[in-house]
Amino acid sequence: MVIEIKKVSFGYSTEKVLHDVDCVFEGGGFYAVIGPNGSGKSTMIRLLNRLLIPDTGTVQVNGRSVQDYPRRFLAQHIGYVPQSGGSSANATVFDTILLGRKPHIKWAPGKSDFKKTVNIIRDFSLEHLTLRLTGELSGGELQRVHIARALVQEPDVLILDEPTSSLDLSHQIEVMKMLKEVSTKGITVIVAIHDLNLALRYADQFLLLRDGSIIAMGDERVISEQNLRALYDVEVQKVDVDGQSYILPLLG
Ligand code: ADP
């Protein structure tokens, strides 16, 4: 599934937050959207799954405007994990994840919906939490539940807004590895992320957003010292350790 943003501008009020944004997310790519706070990452992500509608330009899925698709189609094919998950605090972890199957369920969940839920709970090592209410989880546990819920939906495109922000280091790596694995199966993964080193290690395409405009897009070469200086106004060094690039901020 290909998602294309074509000449999109958007503002919450008269002031524009995105300016003439053009980009293509190809099927099976793992895209990291990078930029300072307030640069428009979340806004761009919300435009991708029609939570927001562009003022000008279009967002297209497989060559057709997202606005032309029935809601159910988008729900079946595009998974979305917002920054603050949006699940009921009074539901159990099991029910919350099972709800990810909702776009595929006619009137009641079937055997395969339960099986997929159980499998994803195992993949995320959440077995010990299945009967806990989501309102009783830590921020990191809740974040993993929300990612599991999006994955059980089996979307073609998975969009996540800062999926690792509340996670400890080992769970950050676990989640990014899982997203990488998912992308190798042909699912397009799009993440807004602040951690440049996690992005460099796991994503394969990078989109740099500054003040609502894309200043660079491409493979890991766009994560250059020069582009990062332009993006954050911070000096960094890109170093190589055992063939893997890392970004080292120079704290001066
Ligand atoms: P990022 O995700 O890169 O931090 P956002 O897309 O959240 O950036 O925000 C881009 C700009 O839009 C910011 O100036 C922010 O204050 C503004 N903004 C975000 N959400 C809203 C909203 N719901 N109403 C009004 N302004 C908003």
TrEMBL record:
SMART domains: AAA. This is Iron complex transport system ATP-binding protein. GO terms for molecular function: ATP binding; ATP hydrolysis activity. PANTHER family: METAL TRANSPORT SYSTEM ATP-BINDING PROTEIN TM_0124-RELATED, MOLYBDATE IMPORT ATP-BINDING PROTEIN MOLC. InterPro entries: AAA+_ATPase, ABC_transporter-like_ATP-bd, Metal_Ion_Import_ABC, P-loop_NTPase. Residues 3-236 form the ABC transporter domain. Keywords: ATP-binding, Nucleotide-binding, Transport. Belongs to the ABC transporter superfamily. It comes from the Bacteria.
